[in-house]
């Protein structure tokens, strides 16, 4: 019974549209290879040196679509200060939908498609979207959000991490 309480509470919170913060402590971002829409690849090591938001999302996810303008605005606000965004489309998302969404919404950051689900698996078996990670300049995950983040709080965290050496 106790094993069902957290998932049930999480599902209820997400259904209510409440962003849930799950602390993971500071841990190294998992070694992953991201296949970008243009066919090029980016690895977890490529994230080092910048503060990066890694957003697992899907075109069929209402909350993902609703938060995307805020993700774009956050990218635009901080991109010139050593901040980056990597949007990772889930394996069940048809690639043509991801390409169409990226083009019609003019996403200004890199978009990857996790065709096999191995990236989502490596990043903590991500199944709920949106799931967002904040990675510091050293390549460590400092925060994970399930559901839409509190963007005011997220901006404070980004500013703090950008100020770190």
From TrEMBL:
Gene3D superfamilies: Glutaredoxin (3.40.30.10). Pfam families: Redoxin. The keyword NAD does not apply. Keywords: Signal. It comes from the Bacteria. Residues 1-28 form the signal peptide. The keyword Signal applies. Residues 23-163 form the Thioredoxin domain. PANTHER family: CHROMOSOME UNDETERMINED SCAFFOLD_47, WHOLE GENOME SHOTGUN SEQUENCE (PTHR42852:SF18), THIOL:DISULFIDE INTERCHANGE PROTEIN DSBE (PTHR42852). This is Peroxiredoxin.
């Amino acid at each position: 019974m106790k094993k069902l309480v957290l998932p049930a509470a999480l599902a209820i919170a997400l259904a209510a549209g409440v962003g849930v913060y799950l602390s993971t402590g500071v841990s190294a971002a998992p070694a992953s290879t991201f296949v970008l829409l243009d066919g090029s690849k980016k690895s977890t090591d490529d994230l080092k040196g910048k503060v990066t938001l890694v957003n697992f999302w899907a075109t069929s996810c209402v909350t993902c679509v609703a938060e995307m303008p805020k993700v774009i605005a956050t990218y635009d606000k901080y991109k010139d200060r050593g901040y980056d965004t990597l949007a990772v489309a889930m394996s069940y998302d048809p690639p043509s939908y991801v390409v169409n969404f990226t083009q019609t919404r003019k996403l200004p950051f890199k978009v990857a498609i996790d065709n096999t689900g191995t990236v989502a698996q490596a990043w903590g078996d991500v199944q709920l979207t949106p799931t967002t990670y904040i990675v510091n300049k050293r390549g460590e995950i400092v925060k994970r959000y399930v559901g839409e983040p509190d963007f005011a709080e997220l901006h404070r965290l980004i500013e703090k991490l950008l100020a770190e050496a």
